[in-house]
Design goal:
Blueprint: H1 25-33, E1 38-41, E2 47-50, E3 62-65, H2 70-74, E4 80-88, E5 91-98, E6 129-132, E7 144-147, E8 169-173, E9 179-183, E10 189-193, E11 202-208, E12 222-225
Antiparallel strand pairs: 1-12, 2-3, 3-11, 4-5, 5-8, 6-7, 8-9, 10-11
Length: about 240
């Protein structure tokens, strides 16, 4: 499994042929340092957020918001961790974890199950992850949930026998400096929007990767933004 070892940023390649340049600080922070970032759409500047911010919610999806309201900001609903989750062949895999509703696990030795430990020996926080429906993107049903592995419904659990495989993503860096998420259970699909609509409160789901148009309705590319950059226009982030 992946350990959070430091990687030479100028040589970092994530899930594709395009190298991440060392000046793309938000991408590097998201993928290497595991700092929380906003996932901001390249087309209209809207950002991904869980439809439900509460830690007790595990059966709701993801939507695109166009205004950062105080309740969302206070709950960190605009922030995501792109967390290392292993490898598929030689491609690193990641979880997309919400900072909203994050739960600090109890100290080691208590009755609760230990969720694993980071490199510094402290228990890892429990974060809800974006989970893919097993039948996506073939049906029109909701195809994403934000929840813990043990809490999401059966159709959002390990399709190929692994408990977490419906939550693992290949992160592909695009030539224009954004990132695209490809679920390993559906390699012909990408993270997109219901009815291909990139608009306020659009429901995130999987959509077939027909290729071509990164600015709008089919290829949905997100630029990670650091929390202190949330009010900066997306086309100024990497200049």
């Amino acid at each position: 499994m992946y350990t959070q070892e430091r990687t030479a940023m100028a040589n970092l390649v994530v899930g594709g042929p395009v190298a991440v340049n060392s000046y793309d600080n938000a991408i590097v922070a998201a993928l290497v340092e595991n700092r929380p970032v906003m996932l901001v759409h390249a087309f209209n500047g809207g950002y991904l957020r869980p439809a439900e911010l509460a830690a007790s919610s595990h059966d709701k999806g993801v939507k695109l918001a166009t205004a950062l309201d105080p309740a969302t900001k206070d709950a960190q609903g605009h922030l995501w961790h792109v967390t290392p989750g292993g490898f598929f062949g030689q491609r690193p895999l990641y979880f997309i974890e919400s900072a909203a509703g994050q739960v600090t696990p109890p100290p080691a030795g208590t009755a609760d199950v230990d969720a694993g430990r980071g490199d510094d020996g402290t228990p890892k926080p429990q974060r809800r992850r974006i989970t893919v429906h097993q039948d996506a993107p073939q049906s029109t049903a909701d195809t994403l949930q934000v929840g813990l592995p043990a809490k999401v419904a059966d159709k959002w659990r390990g399709k190929n026998g692994a408990t977490e495989d419906t939550q693992l993503w290949i992160v592909t860096v695009t030539p224009w400096g954004g990132i695209t998420f490809v679920p390993i259970t559906h390699p012909d699909a990408i993270l997109g929007f219901k009815d291909h609509a990139v608009a306020k409160d659009s429901e995130a789901r999987l959509t077939y990767n027909w290729g071509g148009d990164f600015t709008g309705t089919v290829i949905n590319t997100f630029y990670p933004r650091l929390p202190n950059e949330w009010d900066v226009p997306y086309h100024h982030v990497f200049t």
